[in-house]
Amino acid sequence: MRKSLLVLLLWAPFAMALIPPPGRALDPSTQQAIQRFLLHNRILDTPEDLDTAPYVIAADNGRVLGADGERVHARGVLDPAQPGYAIVRRGRTYTDPRTRELLGVNADDIGTARFVSASDLSTLVVQRVTQEIRPGDRLLRLQPAVDPARLVTPASSASVEGHIIDIPRGVTQIGVLDAVTLNKGRRDGLVEGQLLTVIKAGARVRDPFSGSSVALPDTPAGTLLVFRTYEKLSFALVLSASRSLAVMDRFEAVHAAQ
Fold it and tell me: Which of 26, 99, 160, 199 gives the lowest tally of CB atoms within 10 Å of its CB?
């Protein structure tokens, strides 16, 4: 715990410099962290969006191993005007921690491929792989990169509250420049470029005289930048953290906390 606190203290001056004032663009390190994350992470609003996408049948040799430069064949409608496709596999399904509503499904990154030709089967050339490609892996249009000009902190935004529900890189503690998944999206009023305050719930302690359980006050613990919104979910980047953040920490719009 002391080591985690020391790291946060050392990060503090740099982290505060990452928070852009209203109307100002992001610094280069923040932009790079966002672009790297989006290369490997995306969300689909419904499982059907993935289940109806074109899919890999096999490679030229009748099996699929996924080496760079290898040709793979796929079924489904591919657009010749769309040169690049993401190869993905169904990952985690997200549900709201309170209402249990289905919020979306993660499309696990397997690699990318370039469209070559189409007939009864479409042919693509593998350009990048993160793991072995399997028959049945889906093909999606590459998602657009974040335009830094669009990630300008709005002067005002909707009063939205929600929770961090996932850390896509698979760790338990969240630090500066880590990306997190939020259980709110466009329908809730979140916009790209919006700043959010993370709130840590106060611990419950025992009153030494009455013996009753007492909740200590909630405390602000960090700042998030929303950089990609979906219908019911969003990705956000940690710009500052005064304490270790974790899944199920609450967030709210910055102006609502002031």
Answer: 99
